[in-house]
C-alpha cells in the first residue's frame, strides 16, 4: 500500500505513530471497545498536558463520542470543553454551557451524554491467560 506521505510530500508525518492505521487485534487502533477507550483516555491526557489555552480537535464523530466526549456531533458541528476532574480525580471534559444548551455550536447535534452501547463495537474475544 502506498504511504500517505508520498501523496502529500509537503506535510511532515514524522510524528504519526508508525503503527497507524493498523487495526489488528492488540493494536491501539483496533476496532474494539477496550482499544477505543484506552486511545481516548490517552488522547485526553495528552491534550490536557499541552501548554496551549485553546486546542482544536478534528476527528471522526464516532471516536469523539465513544472515546472522548460522550456527545454526538452532526456534520461540521463542534462543541467547546474545558478539562476537569471527577470526584475520583479522573480527567473529564466539561462542556461549555452555550454549546451544551444549543446542542452543539451550530445547534444540529443531539442533546445529551451518550455512553458506549453494545452495538458500537463488535464483540471482543478475550482469552484467559
Topology at a glance:
Blueprint: H1 4-7, H2 33-48, H3 61-69, E1 81-85, E2 91-95, H4 97-101
Antiparallel strand pairs: 1-2
Keywords summarizing the entry:
129 residues; alpha+beta; two-stranded antiparallel sheet; 4 helices; 8% strand
Biggest sheet, spatial arrangement of strands: 1-2
Distance between the termini: 35 Å
| Cα-atom radius of gyration | 17 Å
Assembly state of the chains shown:
single chain
Helical content (DSSP H or I, runs of 4+): 25-40%
Mean pLDDT: 91
Helix/strand structural class: alpha+beta
What does this molecule look like?
This protein has helices at 4-7, 33-48, 61-69, 97-101, and strands at 81-85, 91-95. The chain is of the alpha+beta class. The chain has one domain. It has a two-stranded antiparallel ribbon with strand order 1-2. Helix 2 (33-48) crosses helix 3. The radius of gyration is 17 Å and the shape is globular. It starts with a helix and ends in a 28-residue tail after the last helix.
Amino acid at each position: 500500500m502506498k504511504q500517505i506521505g508520498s501523496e502529500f510530500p509537503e506535510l511532515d508525518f514524522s510524528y504519526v505513530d508508525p503503527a497507524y492505521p493498523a487495526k489488528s487485534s492488540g493494536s491501539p487502533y483496533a476496532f474494539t471497545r477496550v482499544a477505543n477507550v484506552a486511545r481516548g483516555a490517552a488522547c485526553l491526557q495528552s491534550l490536557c498536558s499541552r501548554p496551549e489555552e485553546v486546542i482544536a480537535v478534528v476527528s471522526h464523530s464516532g471516536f469523539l463520542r465513544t472515546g472522548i466526549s460522550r456527545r454526538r456531533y452532526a456534520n461540521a458541528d463542534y462543541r467547546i470543553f474545558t478539562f476537569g476532574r471527577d470526584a475520583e480525580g479522573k480527567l473529564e471534559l466539561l462542556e461549555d454551557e452555550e454549546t451544551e444548551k444549543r446542542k452543539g455550536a451550530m445547534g444540529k447535534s443531539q442533546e445529551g451524554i451518550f455512553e458506549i452501547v453494545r452495538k458500537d463495537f463488535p464483540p471482543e474475544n478475550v482469552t484467559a491467560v
